[in-house]
Structure formats: structure tokens, C-alpha cells
Amino acid sequence: MRARTRLTNLPLGAAPVVLTLVSSSLILLAAGANPFEAFANIIGGAFESWRKFADVLVALVPLMLCAAGMLITFAAALWNIGIEGQIIMGALFTTAAVRWFPLPSALILPITILAGMLGGALWGLLVGLMRTHGHVNEIFGGLGLNYIAIALTNYFIFGPWKSVDGATMSGTDPFPAAATMPLIAGTRASWPPLIIALLAIAGVYLVLNYTRWGLHLKAIGLNAQAAGRMGIRTTANILLAFAACGALAGLAGSFQTTAVYYRLIPSISSGYGYLSQLVVLLSLLRAEWVPLIVLFFSIISVGSPRLELRMQLDSSLGGILQGSIVLFFLLTRGLQQRLSQRRERKHG
Amino acid sequence: MFIELENIHKHFGRVHANAGISLTVPEGRIMGLLGENGAGKTTLAKILSGYQTHDAGTIYLDGKQASFRSPAEAIRAGIGMLHQDPLDVPALSVLENFELGGLQSGLRKSRASAARLQELCKRFGFSLDADAAVSSLTIGERQQLEIVRLLDQGVQVLILDEPTTGISSPQKVLLFRTLHRLASEGISIIFVSHKLDEVEQLCSSVTVLRRGQVAGSLESPFSPADLVLLMFGKALDITERPDVPLGDSLVELRDGTIRTYRLTMDHLTLELRAGEVVGLAGLEGSGQQLLMRACAGIQPLAGGTLAIAGQDMTRKNYREFARLGVRFVPAARLEEGLISGMSIREHYALIDPNQGNVIAWGNAQTQAAEKISEYNIVGSPDSLVQALSGGNQQRLLLAMLPEKLALLILEHPTRGLDIGSSRWIWEHLLERRLQGTAILFTSTDLDELVKYSDRVIVFSGGMMSAPTPASQVTSESLGYMIGGNLR
Amino acid sequence: MANSLLVETIASVIASAAPLVFAGVGETITEKVGITNLSLDGSILLSAMAGFAAAMLSGSLLVGVITAMLVGALVAGIVATGSIALRQDQVAVGFVLTVLCTALSSFLGKPYVRVPGPSMPHLPIPYLADIPVIGPIFFNHDLLVYLSYVVIFGTVFLFNRTQLGLRLRAVGERPEAAFARGINVNRYRYLFTCLGGALVGLGGATFSLSVKLGWSYQHTAGFGWIALAIVIFGGWNPLRVALGAYLFGALNSLASILQPAFPTVPTQVFQTAPFAFMILTLLIMNGDVLERLPRGSRWLRKLLQGQAPAGLGKRFQSD
Asked: Which one, A208, B177, C130, C302, has the greatest CB density within 10 A?
């Protein structure tokens, strides 16, 4: 019986991938492009050189950190769409730490990391407080805070922190060398963020599966009323989940400034927060799947720009692939559940 | 219109809610459908009015076979039902609700509808403000609205499910007068209730259901004793049981007030001593659930004081009650008690006070396995709680309680359980009382109440009786009191 | 002189708010029937692009507008199917569609970026446009702006004066009760989710053909979220939702008027501030602030308060 259901599920399991390839091929054909060439370019773009593959690792860091954070809030059934703002605040706090505090160079990086986490955590906590104490749905509270975070960074970038050589580049002046992460030779990637991102996802995996706090979050997400009756503090845990997710997102923002752009720029979050939401939806909230999905998404993100160079196509094809695979995943999962329900009803 | 039901069956999973019901509803008369909670009355009413489909059996309207796939079809055939919780749209106005459900399309003909509404209200002496929001109405007024709406749709048969729960006594008088009048105009009425006095007052015939079957039918005038016998079966058999010396006073509720949308309860007084078992009898929604929730710290008191073990707990929350050793085992096991989607092992990891920040899954596993065998739960530590049967969910809830408790409050501890499980659960509970745990519970099973309680309190319409020693309670007196005669 | 400037400003607010009116009222209809279409930010982008491209390719504005509406309805249809037939989380499906549609608009819209194309012709309504003050404010625009008035009052009419509207509200408020009254709950939900989506698409077309002419990368980004917020702000009442759209438009132009007065504050702050301000008002509306208002200001509470349809997001099965 079990073997049979597995077999019948197999084609449906591959369905999201197939449907994504088919539908994006149609879109490509509509745009007058050869689908095979496009897909080959994306993969080729990500693997054409060691330097290019290292860019995949650069993209992987913020996505992994945000997805790790998202797993925490999703465990408690919370939609932390405010994660974009939390990334931005992480970057803002990091930049503030670099600019405002004359620190000995050995301490700069650790302090900036902590500052970034603090910024993200505070911004996440605000979303949580709006929900628990202001009755504002976390989706809208988070969106509002996203825009406020954007306005704040814009204020600093174009105001007090305006670049001296102004016109050349948008953003603040570059950070001093002591406030930038060391690079892996010949690449744009650096080890510490990558290692920290991997540690973060591993840590979240452990927290969610092996700690009491993780179990409490899961209980709150599944049935907050019963969890409360078992003595679990729902409000405090919800706030803590937002703060933890915010801290990880802030960390991502911090690395975007100290390891990628070496300055604060507008839209520093680059949509990684929203993308991480797709990652977590696709992982079915299981941390062990996240690294693989993040790698896959990063390859697409890094490979897509080659479409512009070689095929004069827009690089947003990557976003189409990422979005449609999640959409088809959700839809086929629904179909699968309906079918198996119907089968059960017939047999029992 | 007269209705015949022939051999109606309805299953919900393993529960056989209607097991071959046959009955006749005469035209232009008020028929009572009596039975205690869970006897199958509401299921039958819903089948007849199209809300549920039956598994087997036939419905005849005026001798012609009929079947409804939806309430709308039933209304078109002339059968309308008034639900215990009126099935209206609170956010809309009275007039909008009145208009809704007609088959008209296009523009609303509000003026004509308002005129019809006013005329119907005048006819029955209702006073409904057409522009008021239904959410601002009392339950009684919402019932009145549903009645005139159904009449406006042209129903010939009106089914009322426990219509007197939650309405004021003038509203009740008005309702009964309306029903008499409708019957005299040729409308058939099915009055679903478990209140003996109301059935006596109102109905010209009564059919009693018990455990999904027709226990008997009587014509007015009824003898209350006969009705009680049909509702509850054989007379209770009182077993002697050893007296347990009661401990100190544990719960002291003085002049308590509880206010909810449906019910206001005043002057509540309760004293419970350590090791005492008090059973609360009464129809669903008569106030016993609210009292229990107040004693557990879930339902806040609007007035009065509550002390537990000498400490004032009047404004404390559930967590603080729990710290004193108070636990509440709800009837809604999967909604309030257990966490659907989690396994038994995860539940043990959640409740174990010895678990550190890192969960010792091994300990949780061992604990879960031990309790599974100790409490005879059919399942494994990996079993998700929603996959367990009701009886096993109940065992798990009991198994999850701490060893030492001051007060254990249970809603329907044996509902849906077989005899073996029920007996096992009570053995377990009585053992706890030997350790000084006081037990407060509700049940609809009179046998259970009399057999296991030291004292019994009966609730009706938000009033509570004086506690009666269980040894002095008879099935007849209990049935009477449940039916509304609290003396 | 100052007077005519004010009239001009108000007129431009009325015109520039038209896309938000369409999207906000459309989403109001969708939510009134019990479904949240969270995809607005993406579907407005995609329909704006599709509407512009179709109008350009066909040379017909009507084809452009209809295409945009179809795109909006299609996206809404996916939300409805995902949540009703396939029983997936509405928020999840809506969010994924936001991302997907945004990417699609960038990809498919590339050939049309900053290409001059057709736009709605200016069409003052004879006689009405000559009325002092009111004329220039309301009747000196293009057809889509006039259509936005029709949609506002049409929706009010639908909700309050028709049987259909009564039923759709019942479906959103209490699906069980609607079912009991013979209404096919899920059919209503599909129908009005798609209708709401079509209006959202119309909003997109109004952007690219009337308000912010043409197409560019992320042309309308952010407005979908604003539309969703305006629905809450407007308490699910089409008239108040429209008011919210105008208020947002007014804030936007206020920002550009105030900007010269604060030379130290960068322009970019003014561009994002209205978004933040709008959503922060939600905090005040939803929170306990309203509860704490003094008794005398009950009218204010009534004006600001709004209850979400009780059945919003609740699944319904008739069995």
C-alpha cells in the first residue's frame, strides 16, 4: 500500500519542476528566445569560472541567513514579510557603528556584526509588538516598517552620510579597510560570512528540532490556545521569534555592507528577504532542505545576468523560475492532497 | 404538510448518531423531540432540513418521497430550521438578513421587504428594528427574525432546535404564543428540546430519542415520570462506595458573577474540600462549563471572590492557577487540550518540567512509552495526537497531568468512551482523590454523576442548585431538576 | 491665482489616485466575499505592463485595458483556485504570485521600457467641465478617471442595493449562513475574486496608460501593498477605500510641495514617507487607540473603525 502511494506520488513530486520548465520555456518562446540556450546560459553563467561560482557563494549568504530566520517565525506560524526592513536596519546599524564609533581595527568587524544583529532584532521586535500589542497583522506591520526602513536609509545616504565624491556612485563613502571582510583570493567572496551563514542554518535546525524553545514555537504555531494552557508563554515567544529572525536578517544586512558593497547603498536588501520566504515555503519548513534550495536559488540568481549579455534577455527570468517553481509546488501539493483524500474516502 | 421518516440512519465515523429512526410529524401540531445531549435529536433535525444527508432511510412529505441536498432545497420544499445558534449574518442589518435567501435577483426591493417584515412582526407581536445590525440583537430577537424570515419564504414545517436556550422569559412566553398560533394556522412544528417542563407546556405529542433510536412516543398530557424513564432509561442503580475522609476546604467561591454574551450567572457560591468529588449536572450551556472555567482561571469573574487553598485567586490567570496545582481537562480535546500536528512524544517534551533548554528526546520517548503502557493508550510515541481515537486522546490528556494535583476540573471526562475505558478512567481519577485531589466534573450521564460524586449540583439556565449528597439523589429528582425545576 | 493652483493640485490628486481607486475597490470586493488576494503588488505591475504592451501592439487602447483586466482576473483566479479547490494557504499563494508577477513584468516588459506609446486622450466632459471649481477638479480628465468614479459608486450600489451584493456580503461574512440560504458559496468566491482581480488589472492599465505613462522596470512597485493597506484603512467600505486612495494621492503631492521647504531632507525620503505614514495609520486604527477615545468622539470612532468580513480567509465546504 505504502509502496503504491509512493509510486503514484512520484510523477506529482517532479511536477513542479516539469511545469516550471515547460511554462518558462513558453515564456521564452514568446519572447523570441531559445529556451535551451537560456537555461544553458543560466547554469553556465553560474559555473563559468571559479570567480563566478564564488559569486554564488556571495548570494548564498544573505539568502541562507534570511531563510534561517524565516524558519523561526514560520515555525510559530508568523508571516515575517517585514524581513526586508530587518535586513536594511542591520545594514544601517552596521554602517552607523562603522562611522560613529572610533573602534580599534581588531574590534570593528565583531562590533559591526553585533550592531547589525541588534538593528534587525529591534526592527523585528517592532513587528512583533505591533502584532501582540497593537492588533496589527504582522504582514502589514512588517510592510510599513519596510518602507520606514527604506526612508531612513535614504535619509542617511542622501543626507548626513552623503558621499563626498557624490555623483560617481549612489551610497555612502566606502568603509575603511578595517571594516571590510577579507576576500578569498581571486574572488568576491569571503569566508567568515559564509561560515557564519552555514552555522546559522545548522543552529536553527538544532534549535527547532532539539530545544525546548523550538518545540514551544511549533506548539504556538499549531495551536496557540492549547499551548497557552500547557503553560507556554505565547506572547513572549512570539516576540522572541520576531527578534531572532530579525537578528539573522540584520546579520545578512550587515554582511551586505561589510563583505559585498563596502558601503551602505539604497535597496541594500536586494529582495533577499522576499526570496528567502519562497525558499522556506519550498522547504516545507524543514531546515535540512534549506541549504540545497538556497544553493539552487543562488545559482539561478547569479547565472541569470548572463542572459542580458548573451541573449539580450532580462535577468528577471531567474525570478520567474524561482517564483513559478514555488507556485507549482504549492498547487501540485494541493492537488496531491485532494487526490489522496478522495482515494481514502473511496476506500474507507 | 405532514412528514414521515422511515428508518433514518446517520453515521459520523464510528458513532451511529441516528440508528433507524422512524416517526411521523402530524400537520398543524407541535411535536416535541426530546432526549438528552447526544441522543441524536439535532442530527435528525439537520437531516430533515437539508443540512446533512442521511446514510439510509426515506423521508416522505405528504406521502411523496423527498430528499434534500441543501437547506435551500428543504426550504423550497417547505421545511425550515431554526438553529440553536441562529444561522444568520450578524454583520448585516435585520432587513438585509430578512431579504437574504429569497430567490429574487436584480435590485433589492427593500421597501416591499420592509413592509412584509413589519407586517409579520406585527402579526406575532415582535418588535424588530429593520435597520439595526443583527450583531446588536439578543438571541431571542435573532430567533424572531429567523422565524419571520422562514415564514416569509413560505415554510410549512418549522423545526426549532433548543430555542429557549439563552432567551429571556418574556421572549419565551412570546415564542410559545407564536408557536401555538402558527400551529393553529396549519404549520407543523418540531420542537427539539431536553427540557421536560417546556415540552409539557407546549407540545401535543412527543417523541423521545435515546442513543440514536426512538425510545417511545407519547401523547399529551404526559407524565413526567414516563418522560424521564424514556429519556434516561432504567432507574439508576446506586452503588455503595467507601467514604473518603474529606480534607480541608480547598475552593471557596463567594457571591461570584460570570457574564457572557449568552448567559449571566449571579450569586455563585461553591465550596470544595480536598479529596471531594463534585459532579455538575445540567443541559449543555446551562452554566456549568462557565463555573468550571472560572474555577480553573480561564473565565474571569465579573464579581465576587475566589480563593483556592486559602489564596485569593480572583484576578489571577490560568498559569497562576496551574502553579497551585489546578488543571483543566477540556471536552474539546483537539481544540483546547492537545496540539494537532504533534506526536505523543512531543507532548511529553512540552509538558515535562524537568526538560532543560535542550530537549532530551530520549527521556521524552521513555516517558511517552511508559505512560502509553500505563494508560493503555493505543498508539506509539510517534503517533500524532489527531490520529488517536477520542478515548485515547482522553487517556493521553489524563496521562499528561502532573502526579500531584490540588484540583482537577474535567469536562465530560468519559464522553465518547466505551464502558471499559470509562471505568478505567474513573478508577484512575478516584485514586487521585485518595491523594487529596478535589475533582469537579460535568457529565450528561446521570449514572456517572451519581456513582462517582460525593455531591451533585444541578444547573439550569444559569442557576445552580444547592449541592445534594449523591446518596440522596434519584434519577427522577435529577431529571426534574435538569429539566428546569431547581426547587 | 492661489485658488486655481489649489484646484489644479486637487484635480491632479483625483487623477493620480485613479489606479489606487480601482485596485483598492477591486480588492475590497474580493475580500468582501472572503478571499484575500495578496498578489496585488505583482499583479498591478504585470497588468500595467501587459496593458501598455497590448495597447501599443494593437494600436487600440480598449484592447490594452481589456488585456490588463484579463491579466488581473487570471492572477486572482490562481489565488482563488489555490485556496478554494486546492486548499493552500491564501497568503502563501498570494505572496508567491507577487514575486512571480513582478519578475514576469520585468522580463516580458523589457522591450517596452521607456518606449513612447499610446495614452488615454484628455477628454473634458462638455458642460460639466465648465462648472467652476468642481468642473476642473472632477470632469477635466480622461475616460479611465471617469470610470474610477463609476466603479466607486457602482460598487456601493452593488453592495447595498442589489440582491447579488447582499449575497456576496453574506458569503464573506458567514458562509454557512449563506449556504443555508441557497447561495453557492464557492462559486461566488471564484466569481468575485476574479472580478476584483479584473479591477486590480484595470488599476494597472490606468497607471501605464493614464497616470504614469509608459512602462519602466518596477513601474508601479509598492502601490499594490498600498492598495491592500487602503482596504483595511477604508474598513472594507468602497467609499472610504476610495477616500483612502485620494488621501494617499494628496499625501504624495503634499510631499512634493513640502520638499522645497525642507532642503536638508533628501528627496528620496519624501518619496517613501507617504507609504510609511499610510501603513502607520493602520496601527492607530486597529489598536486600542480608538477604544480610548473620549465618549463624545464616538462619531470619530465610527468613521475610523472597520470590521473585516468575519469569514475572510475561512475555508468553506458544504459537507
From this structure: A208
Cβ <8 Å between A150 and C272? yes
The whole-number pLDDT of residue B103 equals 67
Instruction: Chain C: give the shortest CA distance to residue A42, in Å.
Output: 15
Q: Give partners of A (≥3 CB pairs < 8 A).
A: B, C
In tens, the pLDDT along B338-356 reads 999 999 999 999 988 888 8
Distance from CA of B90 to the nearest CA of C (A): 8
Q: Which of C255, C284, C253, C287 lies closest to C268 in space, CA to CA?
A: C255
Minimum-distance CB partner of C180 among B76, B87, B104: B87
Q: Is B115 on the interface with C (CB under 8 A)?
A: no
Show the domain range for C167. 2-220
- Chain C contacts of B106, Cβ < 8 Å? 162-163
**Residue in C170, C176, C182 nearest the CB of B72:** C182
Domain assignment present for residue C270? The answer is: no
User: Testing the interface with A: which of B11, B339, B358 to mutate, by most A Cβ within 10 A?
Assistant: B339
Q: Which of C99, C106, C267 sits opposite A314 (nearest CB)?
A: C106
Of C163, C307, C309, nearest to B108 by CB-CB distance is C163
| CB hemisphere CA count around A289 (13 angstroms) | 12
**Looking at the 3D structure of chain C, how many domains does it have?**
1
Place of cell 511549533: A218
Give percent of chain B above pLDDT 90: 42
Q: Using the beta-carbon criterion (under 8 Å), do B108 and C307 form an inter-chain contact?
A: no
pLDDT score recorded for residue A57: 94
Q: Chain C within 8 Å of B96 (Cβ-Cβ)?
A: yes
- Which pLDDT score, from 0 to 100, does residue C319 have? 53
Q: Which of B21-30, B163-172, B388-397, C302-311 has the highest mean pLDDT?
A: B21-30
Does the pLDDT at position A255 exceed 50?
yes
Write out the DSSP string of B263-314.
-EEEEEEEEEETT-EEEEEE-TTSSHHHHHHHHHTSS--SEEEEEETTEE-T
ipTM score for this prediction: 0.91
pLDDT at A210: 92
User: B75-113: per-residue pLDDT in tens?
Assistant: 989 999 998 888 999 999 999 999 987 767 788 888 899
Contact A310/A303 with Cβ under 8 angstroms? Answer: no
Are B467 and B279 within 8 A, CB to CB?
A: no
Q: Cβ contacts (< 8 Å) between C174 and chain B: which residues?
A: 87-91
Determine whether the interchain pair B357/A213 forms a contact, defined as Cβ–Cβ distance below 8 Å: yes
Task: Identify any residues that bridge with B193 across adjacent strands, giving them in sequence order.
Answer: B34
Task: Identify the helix (H) or strand (E) that includes residue B402.
Answer: none
Q: Is residue C214 assigned to a domain? A: yes
CB contact under 8 A, A159 and C88: no
Domain membership of residue C316 (yes or no) is no
**Has residue C288 been placed in a domain?**
no
Cβ–Cβ under 8 Å, residues B89 and C173: yes
Given an 8 Å threshold on Cβ–Cβ distance, is B350 in contact with A225?
A: no
Average confidence (pLDDT) over C13-17: 93
Domains of chain A: 18-23+33-347 (1.10.3470)
CB pair distance less than 8 Å for B358 and A215 = no
Q: Which residues of C touch A324 (CB under 8 A)?
A: 100
Rounded Cα distance between C249 and C282, Å, is 17
Query: What are the grid coordinates assigned to C245, written together?
Result: 486612495
B264 — contact with chain C (CB < 8 Å)? no
Mean pLDDT computed over A258-264: 92
The reply to whether residue B101 touches residue C180, judged by beta carbons under 8 angstroms, is yes
Report d(CA A101, CA C44) in Å as an integer: 44
Mean pLDDT across chain C, nearest whole number? 88
More confident residue, C297 or B357: B357
Phi-psi region of B341 (alpha: psi -120 to 50; beta: other; left: phi over 0): left
